[in-house]
Amino acid sequence: MKLRQIKLNLFYVSFLFLFSLILNSCITEEKIKFHTIEEIKNRGKLVAITGYNNYSYFIFKGKTMGFEYELLKKFADKLGVDVEFKLEKNIDEMFSNLEENNADLIAYNLTVTNERKHNFDFTNHFNTTSQVLVQRKPKNWRRLSFDKINDSLVKSPYQLNNKIVYVRKGSSYSKRLENLAEENGINIIILQANDTLSTEDLIEQVANGVIDFTIADENVANLNKEYFTILDIDTKISLPQRIAWAVNKNSSELLNQLNKWIDGFKKTMEFQVIYERYYKHKMYYKNRRQSKFLLKEGGVISQYDNIIKKYSKLIDWDWRLLASIVYQESKFVNEDTSWAGAVGLMQILPETGAAYGANDLLDPEQNIQVGAKYLKWLDDFWKKKVKDKDERVKFVLASYNLGYGHIEDARKLAIKYDADSSKWQNNVETFLMKKSSKKYYNDEVVRNGFCKCIETIKFVKDIMQRYDRYKQFIK
Question: Which residues have a catalytic role annotated?
Answer without folding.
Answer: 329
